Protein 1
Amino acid sequence: MTAVSGIIAIPLMLRDPFCMDDDDVGVSELIGTILFVSGLATLLQSTLGVRLPIVQGSTITFVVPTLAILAQPQWKCPYAAAREEFGVSVNFTSMGLPAVGSEGHREIWKKRIREIQGAIIVASLFQVVIGLSGIMTFALKFIGPLTILPIITLTGISLYPVGSSMSSGQWWIAIMTMFLVTLFSQYINNLRIPTVSCTNGGCRRSHLKLFGLFPILLAMIIGTLICAVLTVTDVLPSNIGEWGYLARTDTSLNVLRKAKWVKFPYPGQWGTPTVSAVGVFGMLSGVLAAMIESVGDYFACARLSGAPPPPLHAINRGVFMEGVCCVFTGAWGSGNGTTSFSENIGVIGLTKVGSRRVVQVGGLMMLVLGCFGKFAALFLIIPQPVLGGTFMITFAMVTAVGLSNMQYIDLNSSRNLFVVGVPIFFGLSLSQWVKSNDAIHTGNETIDQLLTVLFSTGMFVGGVIGFILDNTIPGTDEERGIKKWREALVGGDEDSLPSEQEVYDLPLVSKYIRRLWCLRYLPISPTFIIKEGRSTGDHDTQGELNIAFDAIDTKATPSHES
Amino acid sequence: MTAVSGIIAIPLMLRDPFCMDDDDVGVSELIGTILFVSGLATLLQSTLGVRLPIVQGSTITFVVPTLAILAQPQWKCPYAAAREEFGVSVNFTSMGLPAVGSEGHREIWKKRIREIQGAIIVASLFQVVIGLSGIMTFALKFIGPLTILPIITLTGISLYPVGSSMSSGQWWIAIMTMFLVTLFSQYINNLRIPTVSCTNGGCRRSHLKLFGLFPILLAMIIGTLICAVLTVTDVLPSNIGEWGYLARTDTSLNVLRKAKWVKFPYPGQWGTPTVSAVGVFGMLSGVLAAMIESVGDYFACARLSGAPPPPLHAINRGVFMEGVCCVFTGAWGSGNGTTSFSENIGVIGLTKVGSRRVVQVGGLMMLVLGCFGKFAALFLIIPQPVLGGTFMITFAMVTAVGLSNMQYIDLNSSRNLFVVGVPIFFGLSLSQWVKSNDAIHTGNETIDQLLTVLFSTGMFVGGVIGFILDNTIPGTDEERGIKKWREALVGGDEDSLPSEQEVYDLPLVSKYIRRLWCLRYLPISPTFIIKEGRSTGDHDTQGELNIAFDAIDTKATPSHES
C-alpha cells in the first residue's frame, strides 16, 4: 500500500507531458504497466539482485529529465496548445486533430512514450555496465553527502510545476488535501486506531497508528470522498470550461466501463522504442541519481532489517540488477525507470517486518494487479487537485530529505557552506534561466538541444557542480561528512547479525558459482575477489577498490570462507 | 572595505527595477546616498543603539519585496520595454520618452524610489514600535532556527534573476568572475601574501591571507581589469547592440566626468515619499526578516568581540535604533533599509579586532565618502557581468547560510523534515507560480495587488509557513533546535568578560537615566525592569519576558546593581 500510491503517481504526473489529454483508458494502461514492471523488478531484485527486502518502484528522478526532454519544441502537445488557445471545450476534430482516445491520438502519445522508452533503455545499459564492472563501488570513494544533497534536493524542488498545475484545477481542494496530509502525518500521527489483526492463531484487537502509517493514502481517499460529496451535490461546476470542474469525481467514471478486465502488458506494446542522443544523455542524469540513491538504500535496508552491511558483490549486483530492470521497464514502456523505494525501507523500521519473503509476495501482487485493467482504472477517479495536493507535500518531503544530508557535514566550515550553496543556487537558477530564455546557440542543433535538456535538469547541474567542488576544494573526510555518513550507513553493533553468506549468496546456484574460479573476477559474483587470493569476505586484505569502504569495513561482520 | 562592496551592490541591483536605464549619474547619486546613510546608521547603532561594534549596511532582505512591489504593472519601465521591443539602440525621444538622464527621465525613476521610500518609512515605524515596546524579546520565544531557515534561504534563492540578468550581458566574463571568487575564497584562501603593516611603533612585514579576507572585492577588481584589457584591445564589441558590449569598462566612463565632486545627500532629495498599502505591507516582510536576522547578529557580535551577551534592554534598543535608521534611510531615499552587516561580524572573528571605536570610525568614513560624487561614480566602471558573477556567488552563500540553520535541529525527526521541506518548497513554488500566472482575483484590486506582492515574496511565504508549522506541530525545544541555537548564540565561558553595565550602558546620559524611575518601564532603557523590583540585571528573578532567554540567562554574566 505504501509503494502503490507512489508508483501510480508517476503516470498521473506524466499524462500531460505525454500528451494523453483525456484519454483515461490510455492512462489506466500505463498505470497497469508500471505496476506490472514494478512487481517484476521487485521480484528480480530481492531474489537475484542485492537480495535485501527492497521494493522496486517508479522514481521521480526519471521524471525530471523526462519533463526536460519532452519540453523540446518537437514534443509540444497539440491538444494542450489547442485547449489553451480556444478554451478547454474546443472541438479537436474540427481542428484536424484525431479525437481524444482514438487510434490517431493514441499514436501521438505513444510516440512520446517510445522516445522516453528508448532513452531509458540505452541510458540504463550504462547502469548495467557500471554494476557489472564494479565501477560503482569505486566511484563511491568520491561521492559523499555533499554530492547527494543537491541531487535529491533539486529533484524535489524542480517538480513543483507538476504539482501546481494539477492543484490549479481547484486550489481550495488542493489546499484541503495538503492540510489533510499535514494533519495526518504531523498532528495526529500518533493517534492509535483500534484495529483487528488476524493471524494463524486467531484474531485479536490491536491499536495501530494508522494516520502515521498511511498519511498520503488516507488523505487521497478522504479528499476523493469529499470531492465525491461536492460532485453529487453539484457544488462543483458540471460545465467543462468552469474552474473547479477538474475536482469532480465523475469526469473519469467511464474509464471504469471502458477499461479491459484483463490487460497483459508486454514489451514493445507501444511500438518500437526510438533512440535519440538528446534523450539518452538527458535520461542519464536520472539513471545516475537513482543509482546513487539506491546504494544508500541498500545500507539503510540492511541496517533496518537486521542484515549485515551489503558486501561489494551485493552492491554491484544490486546496481546491475536495477539496470537490467530499468531496461525492462523501458522495454515494457512504463514511461519511467525503477529504483529502490525508500518509503518501504522506512516501513521496515515502523513495522519491524524485514522479511524478504514479504517483499517478494508484495512484488508478485503488484505484478498480478498490473494485469487487471479495471484495477488500474480505479486510480483515475482521484480528482487532479487531490493528487496535486499530495504531490506538493511529497515533493516538499523529497526536498527536505535531500537537505537532511546536512546532518553529516560540518556546517561551521565556510568550505561546506560554499559547497552546499553554490550547487543548489545554480541548479535552481540555471534551470529556470534556460527554461525562460532560449539562450543556447552553439551552431549545432543537437548540441543546443542536449545542453538545453541537461541545463534545465536542475539535479544534473547541481549534482555535477557539487561533485566537482566537493572533490576539489580541500577538506577532510570528517569536514565533508563522509566519515559520519558511512558510519550512519552501516549502523551500530553487528555481532548478533547473520553472516554475509546467509543473506547475500545467490539461491540454488551458489554451489556451482563456487566451482567456477573465473567468476571470482566478476564484480557481481558472490565469490568476487579483487586481487589474487584476496576475497571480499576476507576483510583484512581487501584490495584497492575497498578504500572507499574503509570506514565500513572496520566494523564489518565476521568473515566467511569463500 | 568588506562592507562597502556589499552596500554599493544594492543600488547596482536596483537600477533596472528603478528604471534608471543608462542614467549613470543618477545611479552614482544613489550610491552616494546609500553610503552616507549606512555610515550614519553605523554611528547611531554603535553609539546609542545596541552599542556593539556592528556595521549597519544595506540589505537584500529589502530588495526581495522591492522587486515584488516594482513588478506591478503600473511600475513597468517604459525604457526597458522600448529596448526589448525595438533593440537596445532605440531612439527614446522619437518614441515620446524623455532622453536618458534628462529631468523628465529622472522624474520617472524618482517616482519609483519615492514609492519605495514611503513603503520603507511606514513599514520601519512598525520596527520602531516593536523595539520601543519590547515585543521583539517576547516574540523570540516563538522564533527558532526553523523559522529563520526558510527566510534566509529563500532570500538568497529568490534573487537569482538579478544576478542572471546582469551575467547574461557576457556569460563568459560572469563565469570567469565566479571562478575567481571561488578560487580566492576556497582554493587559495590560506595563501599568505607578504604585506607591510604600519602602526605608531613603525612599519613591519607581515603575512596576510588577503584572498581569504577579500575574495569578492579582489574578484571584482581583477575581473574589471581583465575587462579593461579586453576593452582596450577591442576584443569586446564596441557596438551597443552586440552581445558582450556590457562587459566593456568604457561605457560608463563619462559618469566620472559628469558626477559632481561633492554631492550632499539630504532627506527628501527625490521629492516627497509616496505611501501605498501594497508597498507598506510588502515591505513589512523585509523589515521583519532584517530584524530577526539582526537580533541573531547581536549575539554573534557580542560573542566574537568578547562582550557579554546583550541584555534585553540592549536588544530592544538595537531593534528600536535599527527601525529609526530605516526610517532615515527611507527619508534620505537610498532605495533600501539598513540592517546589521553579518559579513563584518565575520571580520571581527578573522581580524580579532572587536573595537567599537574602529566601527565608529568606519561609519564616519562611509558618511564622508558618501558625499563625494566622484567616489561613488568610480563603482560604475565595474562591468555588469563582473557584478553579476559576484552577486551569484553572494546569493548562493546567503542560501547556504540560511540552510546552515539545520545544524541546530534534529534531522532524524520526520517532524523537522516536514517543517524544513514544506516552507522552502512552497516559498519557492508559490512565488514562481504567482509570477508566471496572473491568478489572484478577489474582486478588490488593492487586495489582489497586495496578495500578489506578498505571495511573490518567497521569504514571506516560507517564513510564515515555517513559523506556523514550527509552533503548532508538537516537538521539544531540543528537537526544534531552539536549545542548541540559543546556546550557540550565547557562546561558551564568560567569566572573563567585562560587565554588562560597562558594555551596554548609554554614554553620558546613564547617570540621569538612573534617576528617572519611570524609565524602568521603558524596554529600551538600561534600567528596564519587567516587574516591580525585578531588573534585567537581577538574573534570578527575571520576569515573564525572560522565559525566552532562560537558556541564555542561566549562563549570563555577573549581575550589576541598577
Protein 2
Amino acid sequence: MQIRIPHVVIVGVGFAGLYAAKTLAGQNFRVTLLDRRNHHTFQPLLYQVASAALSPGEIAVPIRHIFSKAPNIETLLDEVTGFDLKNQRVLMDDDSIIYDYLIVASGATHTYFGHDEWASLAPGLKTVEDATEIRRRVLLAYEIAERDAQLGKPVSPINIVVVGGGPTGVELAGAMAEIARQVLADDFRAIRPATTRVLLVEAGSRILSTYPEDLSRSATEQLQKLGVDVLTGAAVTEIADDHIMIGDKLLPSTVVLWGAGVAASPLGKRLGAPTDRAGRVIVTEDLTIPGHSNVFVLGDLAAVKQSDGKPVPGVAPAAIQMGKYAGEMILADARHQPRKPFVYHDKGSLATIGRSAAVGEIGRAHFSGFPAWIAWLLVHIYFLIGFHNRILVLLQWLWAYVSFSRGARLITGQSRSVAPREHGVVHEADVSNEEVAQRIGNSVPYR
Amino acid sequence: MQIRIPHVVIVGVGFAGLYAAKTLAGQNFRVTLLDRRNHHTFQPLLYQVASAALSPGEIAVPIRHIFSKAPNIETLLDEVTGFDLKNQRVLMDDDSIIYDYLIVASGATHTYFGHDEWASLAPGLKTVEDATEIRRRVLLAYEIAERDAQLGKPVSPINIVVVGGGPTGVELAGAMAEIARQVLADDFRAIRPATTRVLLVEAGSRILSTYPEDLSRSATEQLQKLGVDVLTGAAVTEIADDHIMIGDKLLPSTVVLWGAGVAASPLGKRLGAPTDRAGRVIVTEDLTIPGHSNVFVLGDLAAVKQSDGKPVPGVAPAAIQMGKYAGEMILADARHQPRKPFVYHDKGSLATIGRSAAVGEIGRAHFSGFPAWIAWLLVHIYFLIGFHNRILVLLQWLWAYVSFSRGARLITGQSRSVAPREHGVVHEADVSNEEVAQRIGNSVPYR
C-alpha cells in the first residue's frame, strides 16, 4: 500500500521542513521526517531560554506530536550522512531510505570564521543545548562572583561580551542587560549585578545592517537605554578565557556569546550541487537543484534570489514560505500542473531588543520601541507551534513582564566540556547508551 | 555589623534547610545557605519531569530568588567538603566559613547496595539531571524502536523495569504506563507504544510497605489497572544493558529505573557523630549532635525516633517540621528560652500512582483512587515553592489531564555517559569552565 504512493523524505524539521510537511499532511503521499532531534525548536525565542525567561519545553515541541493526527507522516530520529541522488536514496550510518521526492532543509549553524577554537569560549545560539549552556555560563558567572565576594576574595567586574550585531546578537545583548539590571537586582548580597557591563561588538559600521539606517540608530539608542555598550567597526581578533582582543585592544570578558557568522549545514555540499560562499545550495527558480526537479533545498540552506536580485533573507517567514511552496509544487506534480517559480513575499521584519524595545519595518513604515515590541510579541506568540505552549508562554511572559521574575533560572547539568567521570559513579559510561547517543545525537546541527 | 550578629550556616537547601531559613528570615541572624545547586528542587514532583509532564523550571526555583526579599539571608553556590567543629568552620575546597550555628541538611541519595556498576544502567531519581536523563532514555527507547521498525529491522518489545516498590518506584511505574498507553499512543506509526511492558519489581512481600496492607493491595490493583505488572518478593541480582536477573530468572529490559535503596549524604559521616546503618546521623532530642548543641542535623540525613520508638519517616513534611523546629530553637536560644524536644506530627501520607490513582492515610482513615489523588494534587500544588510556578504547574496539569499531551517531551543534551569530544567542536573542553564546574558541580547530591 505505502509502496505505491509516492514517498517524500524531508531532512531537517525547522520552519521549512515543518511547513512542507504541514502542506502534505493528509495528502496521498507518504512523508518521512528525518531529524537528529526529536523536537522542533522555535528558534526566534531561543534567546529567551538563554536569558532564563522561558524553559526549553516552552519553545520546543516533539516533532511526531505535531503530526500525531496525520497518519501519512512518519518521524524518524536519525542522522543523515549523505545522499545518493542517482538511486534516490538518503543515506544514514548503515541505513538508507528511498525517496520519490527529497526536501533538504537542514538549515544553518554558526561559524567562527576559521577560529573553531573560539567555539567553546563563545557559544552560539542555534539549539536548546546552546541556550541552556549560555544560561548556565551567565548565571554561574554571578554565582562565582557572589561567592568570591562573600569569602573575601578579589572579585573582578562581570563583563558580558556579545559578538555580532545581527538580530541574534542584539536580542542576546538586550536580554543580558535586563538580567543584570532587573532580574537579578535583589538576589545578591555581596555583588551588584547592575554594575555588569554588557558589550555588543559589531565588525561592521552599524548593527542590524539588514535594516534601514534609522532603525539601526534607534536600535543602538534602545540598547544603550537598556545599559548595553554598542561598539561598531570592531572586529574580534582573539577570544580567550578572560578577555577578547579587538585589533590590539584588550577587553576583559567574563562570558562571551557568539551572535556572528552563520554557515549553511554541511549537508548542502553533500548534494553535489553548486553552493555559494556560505555553503548554501544555489537552487533553481522552483527551489530544486539542477537536473533533479524532485530534490528541493529550502530555508537557510538555500541561496535564493528575489526578482530584484536581492537574496531572500535567512528568516523564519522565508523558510515557512519555501516549505509551503515545495509542498504545493509536489501536490501540483501529482495533478500534472506546471510549477510556478518561487516568489518571496516580504511581509516586513521585526527585531526585538528587550522589554518594550524593538525595531520593525513593514513596507515603507518603520517602527521603534513599544509598538514594534508589541507587534513582535503578537507575531511570535501567534506563530509559536503548539497551542498549549502558546498559552503558557504568553502567561510566562506576562508574569515575567510584571514581576521581572525568571522561572527558568536554573543551572542544570554540567558544562558540556566536563568529562563524564567527573560526574561520579552515577553517570559512568554506559556503552549501549553511548553508541545510541553517538548515532543519534551528534551531527550537523539542523535548523 | 554582620560580624556581631550570630551567623547560621545551612548546608543543603532541600525542604529542611529551606524551612529553617524561612524561619530565620528577617530575624537578627546572618544566614548563609550553602548548596552545590543554585535551585531548590521540589522533589515530590521530580517523577513528573522524568515522565515529561513538567519541565525542570516548573519544579525548581533559584534558591537566592526565594530569599531575595530577606536581606539577612545569603546564598552561596559551593561544595562542602567537611567540617571543623572545634573551630566552628564549614570547609570547602580551599575556603571555609565560620559559623555560630550549623545546620546540616544535605539529604539522601540512592544506593545500589554495593552494586555501583548498576548506577549507569538504572538511573535513580534525586536531581533534575536524573529526571531529564530518565526522560531521555525512555523517549529514546521509543524513537529507536520506531526507527528500526521503519527501516525494516527487527524490533524487540519495549520493557521498562522499575526496581523498588516504594513511593518513588510506584510513581515512576505509573507514569511510565501512562506515557506508553496514553501520551505516546497516536504519535508512532511503526510501533505500538501501548504494547510496552512496565514492570515494577519489589524485593519485599508488598509495595508501599510503609503503608497499611489494604493500601498496598489497592495500590497494586490501581497499578495493574494502569497496565503495570507488579512483581513482589523479587530481589534483583543483576542489571545488564538489555536484561535484569531476579534470582536465576532473566527478564529482558529496554530501560531500567532505580527506585530502591536510599542512603544518607556522605556529609553526615564527616560530622564525626554516630550514624546508623543507612549513614544517617543519630541526633539528640533537639536534633543536634552530642556535645554540639549548635550543630543541627535535619531531614533525610537525621535518624530521629518518635515517642513510640518508630523512626521519623524520610518524607517532605518531616523535613519541613525539622527545619522549622531548628529555626525556632535558634530563635529560642537568642531569647534565652529553654529548648523543647522535637516532636514529629504525622499529618498522614499520600502516594500517587497515576492519573486519578493514589493511596492515602490520614489518621485512621484510608483513601484510594480519585479522592486520594485529588488530595495529593491539592497538597502538592499548595506546597509548590514559588507562586508563579504553582499557577503554571496547575495549568500544565489541567492541560495534560484533558489532552494527555506532554509539553516537556524533549530529548535534550547527551547521555551523561557520552564523552564531550563526541559532541563535536562546539563543545570542546573549556578549561576555566571545567574547573568551575568541577568545583561547583560535582559532589554529594543534596536532598
Protein 3
Amino acid sequence: MPLPEKALIRRIRDRAAKYPGAGPHGVIGIGDDCAVVPIPRGHEALVTTDFSLEDVHFKRVWHPPESVGHRCLARALSDIAAMGGEPLAVFLSLAVPPSLPQKWVDGFLRGLLTLAREFNVSLAGGDTAKSPGGILADIVGLGSVPKGKGVLRSGARPGDRIYLTGELGASAATIDLLSSGKKLRPREFASHFFPRPRVAVAGFLRERGLASAMIDISDGLSTDLGHICDESEVGAELESEAIPVATVGNAARRVDLRFALHGGEDYELLFTAPPKKRVPLRIAGVAVRPIGVVTRARQMFLVQKGGVRQRLQPQGWEHFNK
Amino acid sequence: MPLPEKALIRRIRDRAAKYPGAGPHGVIGIGDDCAVVPIPRGHEALVTTDFSLEDVHFKRVWHPPESVGHRCLARALSDIAAMGGEPLAVFLSLAVPPSLPQKWVDGFLRGLLTLAREFNVSLAGGDTAKSPGGILADIVGLGSVPKGKGVLRSGARPGDRIYLTGELGASAATIDLLSSGKKLRPREFASHFFPRPRVAVAGFLRERGLASAMIDISDGLSTDLGHICDESEVGAELESEAIPVATVGNAARRVDLRFALHGGEDYELLFTAPPKKRVPLRIAGVAVRPIGVVTRARQMFLVQKGGVRQRLQPQGWEHFNK
C-alpha cells in the first residue's frame, strides 16, 4: 500500500517508539516544531547531514531496504566518529514516491532503527514529503564532543604517522560486482551493505588525545587523505605494502588495490598521530595500522616496496551512476 | 554553466564566506566531517529539518531562486521560533540536476544567505549531490533555548486564550493566483515569496513566560491548531470575526477566509496563554491578536458573529501539486 505523507509521519513515529531505550535521556522528539536535545555539560554540538538518494547512493534492485536504512544512518555516525564525537540523536528527512510499497519503508526504518538502537541514538525528528522522483533521504546526525576537543582535519603536522582502521576497498569492489550483473547475498558483503561506523575507536583516540587529525573514508583514501593534507597544509607518503586491502565474499577474494586507494564508502577512520604517541594496533576490536607519514612538501606519494615513489592523486569517489 | 558536485561545494563555501559576521562565535563550519557549534551555557539544542523540493514546495517557473533560498531558510527559522528558541546555525543539503545553470544556484544562495545574515546564523555545513530529478534542498536548523524553557505544543490548558501574530492566508492566495496563470511581482506578494520568521516575537514570549503552547503556521490554522489540541489533549473555539485575514498585492485585495483558515506557509505564530497573562497587542513591530479560547472538550469550533458554532476540521495544507 502506498503511503501518503501524513501516514508516513505516523509510521516513522510509531516505528521509532518501538525501539525504546535508544537515545539520550530527555530528548523531546517527533511531534513538535523542533526536537529538544540536551547537550552534555562542557560539550559542544556536532552536526552532519548526508543525502541518500535513489540511483545516486543506492539502487533499489541492488540494495535491500534494510541496507539502505543502515547505510543512511552509518554515514552520519561515521562523520560524528571522525570528529571524535558521541552521537546523541538523528533526524530523517524522507521523501518517497506515492507508489512506493509500505513494506519498503518498513524495511528501511528497520535497518535504520536497529543501528540507531545499537549506538544508543534516538530518531528524534525530521520531515516527510511526496517525492517527485525516486526515494530521497537526508540524514542529520547530532553529536557532541568536549569543548575544544573535536578532532579536525586540520591538525596534521609533518612527521606525524598516518593510521587507518580496518581494511579498504570492499565497498567499491562490491559495487563493481553488482555493476557487472552479479547477484550478491548482502550478509556475505556486509562491509558494503552493513558498514560499521567506528564510533568506539574514535572515542578512544579522542579520550587519549592520540589523533592530531582525523577523517572517515567516505570518498576514498586518496581523496580523504587529500582533504587532511589540504586542511592541514601538509603532504603525505603512503607505503603501498602497508595499505590493508579488503577481502570480500565467502571466498574471501582480495580486492583490487585501486578499490582500496580510490574506492569510497568504507567508513574506516584515517587519522594522524605525533610519532611519540603510542597507538595500539587494536582498538575496540578493530585493527589499526600505520600506513605512512605526514610530510612538509604538499604532495601525496605512494612508495613501493623497492622505494619507488609515485604521485598519488585524489581520484575522488564518484557515485556509481556518474 | 552546469555545476559538478565538487564545484557546488566550493561555490557554497565561497558564497558563505562572503557573508561574514553571520553566525555565532566559534562555529567550525564547512570543511570538516561535522560542524562544531558551541551551545550557550545553560541551554539545550533545538533541531529541525525541512525539505524544499522542486514541484512539491516550489516551482521554478513561479519562484525566483532568491525566493526559493529565502523560503527554504525561513521554514527552519520559523520552526526554531515556534519553540521560543534562538537560531545558531543552519546546514544545507542541496542536490541539483547537472543541467541547472550556476546562476540559479547563486540566486538561491543569495536569498538564503541574505536572510541568514539578517538573523545572525551561519551556513555551517551540509551535503551536495547530483540530483536524479529536480532540485532537492533539505535545510537543517540548529538553535538553542534555556534548559526546560522550550515552548512545546503540549502546554495549552482549558481556559487559555489563543493568539496569532500577523495575518493569514496570503501565501495560499498567492499560490492560487499563480495556479490560475497570473504573473506576479514577488515583491508585491512578499508574504509568500519572502516570509518573515517571527523569531523576535517568539523570544519575547519565551523570556516573559507568556506562552503556554506555541506552533508556527506552516500547514494552515485549522491543522496547526489541531496539532496543539492533539498534543495538549484539549479543544478550541475560534471567533470567526477575530481571525486576521491578509490582503495581497498592491491593490491590497482581502483574501478568501478559507485561505486564512486552511492555507499554509504563512509562518505566523499561533500560541496560547493563560487568561491572567497580559499579552501585548504588538510585539517587535508585529500585531498580536486574540482569536479564541482553549476548551476542555476535544473538538475545534468556529464561532460566527451571531453565536452560531460550526465544527472546524483540520484541512491540512497539501502542497500545490497534490
